[in-house]
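Hi F.,

I've been meaning to write this up properly since the lab meeting, where we talked about keeping a consistent format for the predictions we share between groups. The idea is simple: the sequence comes first, exactly as it goes in, then the structure tokens exactly as they come out, then a line or two of notes. No screenshots and no reformatting. I'm using this chain as the first example so we have something concrete to point to.
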Amino acid sequence: MRIAFALVTAVLVSVAPRAARAQRLDVSGGGTVTIGDPVTLVLHAALPAGATVESPPHPRDSLPSSVRLIGVDTIRRAGDGALLYRARVAFYETGSLTSPAFALTYRMPGREALDSVVSGALLVTVMATLPDTAIAMRDIRPFAALGGQESTRWWVAVIAALIAGAIAAIVIRARRRTPARLAVPAESVRPLSAYEAARAHLDAVRRAGWLDGDVERHYEEIAETLRRYLEHAHAVPAVRRTTSELLRTLPDALRAEGMDVELGAMLGEADLVKFARLRPAARPALAFLERATALLDRLHAASASSAPPSPSSVHREHDAIR
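Output, unedited:
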């Protein structure tokens, strides 16, 4: 009896470590980042022999509004047969935060039901990016999705108003002409280019008078104008990307003379007003508009001097503005 008990105990002891190591999902990384910048988490997945991964690791629970999952990539298979994944997460709230827990779903041979393994969470310290001259910082408002439809309506309304004004000016001038000149056909009104539409929108921001009571709207509209110009005129996916992601996709023609550095600084300043609730005075806010206008002119001049646009690109640009 003692011999049988000893054999059973030896089998259980030898099997227990294997079962403990049969499945696990370890996470490493974290550290200290600034608000809005992505942090990289490395997931080390060890599964039982013969297991088949059904889907890459994904957050086990729904993410809060202040956390954004940028993507999950498969890095490689480790030497011990485990899988390595890389997850990139961005935080839009300052303080000591925890990363989301990830779950990996897999299937064992001969089983219909799926199994899963869950990782732990890491501590991530998110720092604010306020300049040293800032006096105080209030709590950041919850992250809110951009109003794509409302921005599109505003963009279309500005273009329609400009076209209507141009048509009205042509009609008034035609009525003042002599009968001999009335016989000359009027020039057709062409659609605005991306640069012209962006210029008109910045002029509309100047006349809106948001510096007195809504300086956040002032900065947000200027930053959105620069992003939409890059997307429509240069095919840069700038509207829904973070500032760091946008700068990495700029063409070489727009990086000359430090334009990429200036663009990053301006978009970062607008992010401080939007997310960190920094409230500049009227004079620096107006100077921000002047800098944005000058940068828009430089971006347009650089793209025009680098290479002439093809007819197909011009056609796509006009379609995007319409």
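Notes:
DSSP finds nine helices and ten strands in the chain.
The chain has a mean pLDDT of 78.

If this format works for you, I'll send the rest the same way.

G.
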